[in-house]
Amino acid sequence: MRKTQAKKLPLAPDAKYNDILVTRFVNNLMWQGKKNGAYTIFYDALDKVAKQTSENGYEVWKRALANVTPGVEVRSRRIGGATFQIPAEVRADRKISLSIKWLVRYSRERNGRSMADKLANEIVAASKGEGGAFKKKEDTHRMAEANKAFAHFRV
Predict the structure, then answer these.
(1) Who's near 58: CB < 8 A, 6+ residues apart?
(2) What DSSP line would sit under 118-137, residue for residue?
(3) Do 85 and 76 form a contact (C-beta atoms < 8 A)?
(4) What is the pLDDT of residues 104-137, one digit of tens each?
(5) Domain 20-77+84-153 has CATH 1.10.472.10
(6) Which terminus of the chain, N or C, has fewer Cβ atoms within 10 Å?
(7) CA distance linking residue 149 with residue 146, whole number of Å
(8) Mean pLDDT along residues 43-56
(9) 65: Cβ–Cβ under 8 A, 6 or more apart, which residues?
């Protein structure tokens, strides 16, 4: 193991919204280093969200991310030969990472013509408290609630 933790490299905010969170999202959306393509998909998706909801697409996306962000998760821990699922609070940085990954993953699994369409539909669904990414958050919370009896094993 290393002695000191690796430094987090600062991300440059995106050009349109001047937000580092958008850059993080686009970095997760990107495939094979095609960052411009990922930005195009993201901005097209926000435009489609704005048309569908007649609200600001950026605000709907922020709301969707907030709705998908988990508060607790379960972590595996071996105790005396048995593996227990122990509920634990999610670190702030990991909360954001999980919500972004879930939105992108469930967007890719959706039906639709283009990735922009799929992402727009998932963002709209998540902002209303529906969709695959929101369901994943609910399942994670339910799993933590079910294993609350093992919380005293927490490290």
Answers:
(1) 17, 46
(2) HHHHHHHHHHTT-HHHHHHH
(3) yes
(4) 999 999 998 999 999 999 999 999 999 999 999 9
(5) no
(6) N
(7) 8
(8) 95
(9) 21, 25, 96, 99, 100, 103, 126
Q: Taken in order 141, 108, 100, 49, is the CA torsion positive or negative?
A: negative
Six token digits for residue 30: 């990107």
What are the helix (H) ranges across 11-80?
20-29, 35-53, 57-68
Region of poorest pLDDT, from 16-25, 75-84, 146-155: 146-155
For residue 1, which amino acid is it?
M
Sign of CA dihedral 52, 57, 61, 63: negative
The pLDDT mean for the chain works out to: 93
Cα(95)–Cα(117) distance, integer angstroms = 25
Which pLDDT value is given to residue 38?
A: 96
For 137, the token pair is 């958050």
